[in-house]
Amino acid sequence: MFDPAARTRARLLDLETRSRDRAEAGAVAEGVAETIGLSEARGAVFEGPPSPGRPYRRQTGLDWLARKGRISPVQKSAGERYGALYRRTAREGAIRSTLDVRPGGGGPSGPGAREEVLLTAAEGSAQAAARLAALRARLWDQADLISACDLICGRELTPREAVASEREVGRIEALVAVALDVLAGDRG
User: Fold this and answer.
1) Global pTM?
2) DSSP string covering the chain
3) Cα separation, 101 vs 120, whole angstroms
4) CB 148 within 8 A of CB 71
5) Residue 182 — φ and ψ, nearest 5°?
6) pLDDT in tens, 75-126
7) What gap in Å lies between CA 98 and CA 102, rounded to an integer?
8) What number of other Cβ atoms are within 10 A of residue 31's Cβ?
């Protein structure tokens, strides 16, 4: 039947839930704004969300340099290749976690399948390390050029994030541009 008290309780619970949801959404928005503000103060650059409800996207150092017209698409491509190799070799020493450890190699993929995957990954990391060493040799093993590429291309930092002072921003941008010119022009 029609119970006005139950209907009022249901309406009040609905209003309370909506109010709580709005407060939580506001707190999340404040937290995101604070995090973005702090990161921007440290030199990170973000693309705003294309529409409400979409996430912010942090720009990489290469994206930032390309958008500012400081590097060409060819240089950016060379930097992306360098960065992919850098990140692949940086993961090499990391201890990976898995819950799929099966002593004796038993399992649905058959005996030895897990070991084969690990060996393939190790071979890929070794090849990436060798290719990264070759790219670094192309940079004449110059510590400044290699360091600039490691920071901007490999760790994906913007120039402001990569250096301690504003004076050094222009220097690291110039170093990256020179290094990427060498890497882009000396493809092999």
Assistant:
1) 0.71
2) ---HHHHHHHHHHHHHHHHHHHHHHHHHHHHHHHHHHHHHHTT-EEEPPSSTTPPPEEEPHHHHHHHTTSS-HHHHHHHHHHHHHHHHHHHHTSPP--S---GGG-STT-TTHHHHHHHHHHHHHHHHHHHHHHHHHHTTT-HHHHHHHIIIIIS---HHHHSSSTHHHHHHHHHHHHHHHHHHHT--
3) 17
4) no
5) -60, -45
6) 999 999 999 999 999 876 555 566 555 555 555 555 566 788 878 888 888 9
7) 10
8) 10
